[in-house]
């Protein structure tokens, strides 16, 4: 059985997933989402990576039926785009064969099928917050308001993180003082051994 601290940390992750960035319900006409960006964050890909890490899990949590494909590549000039696919009004789309996510750049954004339209968001050199805001505006997603219980848990989590920062600083200072003391004792012993050897 896992310990209570481990369970608390996993619960905190679920609370962040449920009510953090990306906690939104997409409209029914959104058929799929495709992200494309570079493995490395330099070259303007930091915002897309952060969006992928922080917002996309929440979107998938609240919209499990919407396929979300991520295509990461090692190309230097790789684009950083987010493509939203929408079903046209009154059109029933056939079941689409979905490609999986790829880490070698092979899962490019497909062209929209008849009865579907695509909207592209350019993410290069943009912060994840700006990407999320444009995504919410263009998709028509409705943000999920955290419950009072979630807000309480998020506050407790923030308090624990603040206390953890203070504890880490205190531990770092104590470890540094202990290292200095050990170094002083080592030098003193070495000097004492040298003076006894010279007698």
Describe the overall structure.
With about 200 residues, the chain is of the alpha+beta class. The chain folds into two domains: about 1-20 and about 145-199; about 20-145, 3-Layer(aba) Sandwich (Glutaredoxin). Helix content is about 50%, strand content about 15%. The chain is built from four helices and six strands. The protein has helices spanning about 5-20, 45-60, 130-140, 150-195, and strands at about 25, 30-40, 70-75, 80-85, 115-120, 140-145. The strands form two sheets. Strands 3-2-4-5 form a four-stranded mixed sheet, covered by helices on one side. Helix 2 (about 45-60) crosses helix 3. It is elongated. Pfam families: L51_S25_CI-B8 (PF05047). It comes from Staphylotrichum tortipilum. GO terms for molecular function: structural constituent of ribosome. This is CI-B8 domain-containing protein.
Number of strands: 6
In spatial order, strands of the major sheet run 3-2-4-5
What is the arithmetic mean of pLDDT?
Answer: 85
Radius of gyration: 26 Å
Listing every helix as H and every strand as E from the N terminus to the C terminus, the arrangement reads: HEEHEEEHEH
Shape verdict:
elongated
Main β sheet profile? 4 strands, mixed
CATH architecture of the largest domain: 3-Layer(aba) Sandwich
CATH class of the largest domain: Alpha Beta
Class per helix and strand makeup: alpha+beta
Number of spatially distinct domains:
2
Strand percent estimate:
15-25%
The helix fraction, in percent, is 40-55%
Looking at CATH, the homologous superfamily of the largest domain is Glutaredoxin
Assembly context of the chains: single chain
Low-confidence stretches: none
Number of helices: 4
What name does the CATH topology of the largest domain carry? Answer: Glutaredoxin
End-to-end Cα distance, whole Å, is: 63 Å
Domain Ribosomal protein/NADH dehydrogenase: 40-142
Organism: Staphylotrichum tortipilum
Keywords: Mitochondrion, Ribonucleoprotein, Ribosomal protein
Protein name: CI-B8 domain-containing protein
């Amino acid at each position: 059985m896992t310990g209570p601290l481990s369970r608390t940390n996993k619960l905190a992750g679920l609370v962040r997933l449920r009510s953090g960035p990306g906690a939104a319900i997409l409209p029914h006409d959104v058929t799929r989402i495709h992200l494309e960006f570079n493995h490395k964050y330099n070259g303007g890909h930091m915002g897309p990576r952060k969006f992928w890490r922080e917002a996309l899990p929440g979107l998938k949590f609240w919209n499990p039926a919407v396929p979300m494909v991520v295509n990461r590549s090692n190309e230097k000039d790789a684009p950083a785009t987010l493509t939203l696919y929408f079903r046209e009004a009154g059109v029933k789309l056939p079941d689409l064969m979905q490609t999986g996510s790829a880490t070698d750049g092979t899962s490019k954004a497909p062209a929209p099928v008849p009865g579907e339209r695509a909207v592209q968001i350019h993410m290069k050199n943009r912060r994840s917050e700006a990407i999320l805001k444009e995504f919410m505006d263009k998709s028509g997603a409705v943000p999920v308001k955290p419950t009072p219980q979630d807000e309480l848990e998020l506050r407790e989590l923030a308090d624990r993180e603040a206390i953890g920062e203070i504890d880490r600083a205190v531990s770092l200072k104590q470890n540094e003082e202990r290292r200095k003391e050990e170094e002083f004792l080592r030098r003193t012993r070495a000097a004492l051994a040298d003076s006894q050897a010279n007698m």
